[in-house]
Amino acid sequence: MGAVGAVGAAIYPSRMHHRRGPFTLSSPGAALWLAAVLVAVAIGGANPAGASGPAAASFRGHGSIDEAYALGAPGGAHLTLVNAAGANVGSGVVDRLGAVLVRNVTPGTGYRFEEQGGATPTASRPFSVLSAHSTPSSSFYADQHLHVGLNYLLMRDGITLAATVRLPPGKTLADGPFPTVIEYSGYDVAGPASLIASLEGQTPSNNPLLPSTSTIVGSAIAPLLGFATVSLQMRGTGCSGGAFDLLGLDSDYDGYDAVQIVGSQSWVLNHKVGMVGISYSGFSQLVVAGTDPPDLAAITPLSPTDDLFSTGYPGGIYNDGFSKSWIEERISDAKAAPGGGQPWTTAEIDTGDTTCLSNQALHPEAEALAKLVGPGLARTPSLFDQRSPTDWAAHIKVPVFMAGALEDEQVGPQWPALITALRHDQDVYVTMMNGTHIDSLGPDTISRWLEFLDIYVAGQVPTASPLLDPLASEVYSQATGGAPSMTPPPIRFTDEPSLAAAKASYAAQTPRVRVLFDYGGGRSE
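-> C-alpha cells emitted (525 positions)
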C-alpha cells in the first residue's frame, strides 16, 4: 500500500475492507485530497507534534468548514484547540465515543488539538480548518464510483455520508445513462431496502432497513417514473458520519459535494442531476442549490419553509406543537447507534457494516438544537441567517419548481417569502394552494412536476407515463389516510419536435405563480 493509502487506512481502517466497497482511497483525486485535508503538515508556523513541544498524540485532529474535531481521544479528557500562532481558540471534553468538536473556528492552517493532562502533554498532528470556498478538485469527485444499493460518499473534510442508489424497477446500471435526482434528508432516507417492493406487498412493511415514507418522492415515485435516485443521508444522522447541525454550513456543502460526485458518474444522463423531495427533503434543496454546484440541473422543493425561525415562531409566538415535536425527533435521530438514533442504523450495523458503526463517533457532538428552535428565543442573525432557506434562495441560479400549501399545518404559511428571494432566477415556477402539508404532492401538481423534471433534468421532451395516474392516486390516498383524489392532468408538450420547443412551450404556458383555490379530493354531498 502506498503512503496515501496507508494514511487512509490509519484514519478509517474499516473502509479499506468494508464489504460494500463504495470507493477506494488509492484513486488519485480522493486520496490526495484526503491526505491534504486530514494530514496537513506544519504550515504557517506550526511545529509537528514531537519536534519541539508536546509529544505526538494517539488521537487525530481534523478540520471541517469553520469547525475542528478530534477522534480517538480518551473519554473524559480535556482537549484544547490551538492555532498556528500557538493561541488557544477553543476547547472541549472528549465524549464517550472518543470525540470532541469545536465550532466557529476561523479557517486556516496549522491547527492542532492538545491534551495538557498527564505527565507528558500531547498534541495531534497539524491540520487545516476549511472555509466554504475550500472546494476539492474535479478528480476528487470523479474518482468516487457508486453502485446500486448503499454507498458511502467521501466529503471534503473526510466525513463519509450514507447514500443509496435506486434505479427504475428491473433496470441495472448497464441500462443507463439515467436521468438522475438526489433526495437529501435527515430523515431515514438511505435505508437500503426497497420501499417500492414494500408498498407493492412483495416484502414486509416492518423491515427496519426500509427508508421512511416521508422520503417517498425519491425512494419510490421518481424511480417508478424512470429516474435514478441517490438517497443521501444528512451528516450526523443514520449511517452518515459527522455531527448533526440543522442546515449548518458543513451539511450545506455536503450537498454540493454529493451533487458533484453523482454528476460525475458514467450512468448519469448528461452528467447533470436534479433534486427532489417534500418537507425536510424540500428545504434542503434550497440551501444546496444556493451553494451553486456546477452539476446541479434544477430543484423541485415541495412544502418548503422560508426560515427556521418563522417555522418555530409563526407570528412571533413559539410553536410548542409541531415545531417542538419535530426538533425532539431530530435530536433523537442524531444520537449514536446502536442504542440510539434511527432504527435502520442499528439494523445496518447488525449486518456487519463497520463503516456505519465507525461513523457514529461524532454523533454525540450534535449541535444543541434548543439554540435554534426552543422557547424564549429571538432571531439571532448569526445563528439563523446561514441556516435560512430564504437567504440561500437569493443565490440560486438553476430552474426551480416549487409548491406549497397556504394552510400548511407544519412549516406554516410564510414560505411564499421564497418567491421574492428567487426573483433574479428566470426559470422559477410556483404553485400555491389551500390545504395541508401533503397537498403539494397532490395529483394536480405531480403532472407539472414531471414535465419540469423531463425538460430541465432529463433534458428531453416530456413523455407520458402509464404509471402516473395510479401512482398519484395511491400515494395521495396513503398520505391522507384514504382521501379520494382527482385524476392528474395529462402530461403536456409530448408532441413538441425538440427539447428547445418543449422548453419554450413550458415557459409560455406555465404561469410563474399559480394559485389553486378550493383545492381538494372529494365532492361535497
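The CA atoms of residues 189 and 373 lie 23 Å apart.
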